[in-house]
Amino acid sequence: MTTVVVLFNLKEGADVAAYETWANTVDIPNVRRLNGCGGFNVFRVQGLLNGSPDAPYQYVELIEIVDMETFKASVSTEAAQQVAAQFREFADAPVFMVSESIA
Description:
Blueprint: E1 2-10, H1 16-33, E2 37-44, E3 59-65, H2 68-75, H3 78-90, E4 91-100
């Protein structure tokens, strides 16, 4: 299965509570409904495994893709693009990495 891993920080001045409310009420339910999406979770990073709180990113998203072509068509719709535009209001230079399991 293909997984899109998204790493990002919030823009300076962005309200964490406002972002997390938006993520739970708008982003997560809308992405999970996209055709070709098999799952979607957003994680708040708490720190590094060695105990350091200085992680390079505040949030990680994992989007499981069951059919990439179908998913790409779904994210190009006007409704999905509106959600993406709202995401860009919060996220500062998100990194989108397409990955696949090796096992």
